[in-house]
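To close the chapter, one final illustration. This time we ask the reader to focus less on the individual chains and more on the assembly as a whole: which components sit near each other, and how the overall shape emerges from the parts.
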Amino acid sequence: MSYRKIGDSDLFFNTVEAHPYVEFFINDGNVFYNTQPRHLGHRNTGSGPPTVTAVSSGFLSLYEYNIDRPFKGENRAIPHKKNTYLEEKASYDAVDKPINFLQDNNRIYAWISKDSSRTAPKTLTRTDFGGGFQNGEVITFDYPLSASITREYTGSSYTSTASYNSHYVALRNRLNFYGIRSPHYLVDSPYGNKDGRPINIISIPSIFYGSKIRPGTVSLKWYFTGTLAAELRDENRNGELIQMSATDNGVNGPQHSASVAGVVLYEEGIILLTGSWGINNKLCRLVEALGSDVRPAWIYFGAGCNDSLKQSSTGMNNTFTSASFGISFEGQTQTQVMTMFAHARRGEANYSNNPTFLKKGQTRALYTSSHVYQEDPTILIANTVSSSLVDYTASFKRQVYISRVAMYDHNRNMLGLATLATPVLKEEDRSYAFKLKMDI
Amino acid sequence: MPLNYEPLDINTDVTTTRTLLHEVIPLSGTIVSGTYSDNNIKNYTHGMFQSVYDYPYLSSSANHIFDITMGFTAAATVSGRGLTLSASCAASGVQNSKKLNTYTQFAQTLLGYKNSAGNEVEIFESDTDISDDTNQMTSCYFITLSRLIMKEQIKKGSFSMTIGTGSFASGLATTGSSGTSLNKAMAVVLHDVSASAGTSGEFKSGLPGGDYGILYVSGASPVTASGVIFYQAGVVVLSSSFMANPYNITGAAFTGAPYWKVGATNMNVQSTFITASMSGACDALRRRIRNISFNNTTEINSKIYFCRVPHNKYNYSANPTYTKDSKIQVKDLASDPPLSYITTVGLYNSSNELLAVAKVSEPLKKDPTNELTLRVRLDY
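The assembled structure is written out below.
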């Protein structure tokens, strides 16, 4: 096998920017991600979400480890002990010895030993870490780690330093920072003051979009009894969410087409809605605390999106199911890609070490001893040239089929292997360049 | 842009640590042996191994958990016959050369060569001295765990595997037909209990395949080893002898020839190695696995920078909001001592280029009466 050096012009790096399309649909406390239905588990039918990924619909499982695994505590210790888990644990507890073994619960989960490095899961409070575990004891944390969008409605965003919504307050500086894009971002602008007003915050974890939400692709759709009532889009790509249409605004209320109902913080994955006008003249129960029906408005958009609201919640009624919501946008991911060209030039790469390359039944070694190994120079190559005629063997030509391209380092250690979908016929008078791409 | 920079002393202000993060990996037998009607078992046209997934492999949710295969050496013998396993397989079995090649390839990769000439591959042994040619395991099953679940390596001393060694009607039984305890272990636990990490652990280092430990039969008398596990390579080598006889655990002797099902045929393990296809032999073992569990390991390397804030520095801020109307906002009286709130630590290179920033969860009050040491940790 011969090696060929990758030349300067055969290797380059670039960035591939992708825009994954993301869509959520929300109705009656159920969230659906990219129109995926809820996949019920075959084995996982019990505690927690009884789904294949062990997370509810609308959620992503970070590592997708515990696929279709029921959470079921076994009385078995890991590592293996002669006694059962409970017996072993009782014997450790009796002498106040740190428990350094685990219980098999049929699921993969992570653990760490408490030591002086003070490394611990983020979910553990400082108090629990300090008082709840001895040095050498195992601290466990469960999988799956999951993420989904959440919606938070606050009737009073910021009234004083004693009464405020902390999530909104955390965004105030950022909103003023983006005021250069559009005055609609500003906390206090000619369009009103966001402090003290009802605010609707929709948070989108970055796992759904990558580095940022792609400007100009955000669409929020409000469906009432299954019919599109109104839509918001950021068509100006400056973060303003502009109402595109409303089914009966012209008849029953002020026309709010082209009104700005909120803003998008693209980099942070936050949608902040302030539009409080009625989209139509219907009524439905959208806010638990109010205890009465309200006109559909953008500040109520996404009700039921992981905010614990559903028709059966206390204070809600069956009109809640009339409202359903669609959120769609494109993300933006950037992947560094290494591209290599491997050349099989004319007159090169025309031999194969595959044993079937030579005609069958020939003796390869002409002479062999402790000092000499001599191959037969007259050994014949198998003729693989195809003929379209029956009972006729085509004339011999040197040709090989290239099925793989391997990459080696300076020491000739193989680093990677690219396999072709179908072998490529390489004739002696032909040149090929194979393009190999690898995400890095 | 900071007003001034505080140099880090490489000897006193910077240190490195390593934290080991582990995961418990239980692989219950129902995943391995047929919950999904073998839709989670991928067989290949070459027939040399099969892949086991935790869910039907046509689903994008499925994770590859391990591959399983088998093989033997040319010298592996058959009790009661004059021929070797290989010769018997060549005469009346299938895939003889593939079984030989599989064993040799695993041995070559994990153990290396016997001599400096490099023309004879070592043979697996169920002890920690690979050169003494005792306790050789000449016919073996190989279970190669997926990198996804074993991560950087398997934690020493954490591996166990429960496996049924009884005859086909009672492969995993623990009680007899009358409800009395059997005097032989049908379901045995193989584990590397003595291989805990450290100098006292019973494991072997320095082989091409990395460290390996011995898999003992739990509670067996006399002490019985029936395989080895390679921690970094994630390969379990299981001697076919585990099915030669059920292990005598409670003292009473047992003689017999345990059979298992290979397809619709009852075979003992020797016949399986000779006459069964590799995938058929793997099926037979797979259906005897009740449980596999181990802990994996991921190393988290960290560099810790102790960023010291002296009492007489960093009591002022360059933040534009720090002053308003010619007055420092966080001070009530002009005569009050200087005061600032630290929110961010920036790490700069020697050219004063910002490389990384660390944020504190809440601003820290800094005035000339206190000194702070901020511990900035960088994981990689």
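The longest strand of chain A covers residues 323-344. Chain A touches chain B at residues 39, 42-43, 52-53, 64-65, 67-69, 76, 78-80, 82, 102, 104-113, 117, 119, 140 (CB under 8 Å). With these observations in hand, you are ready for the problems at the end of the chapter.
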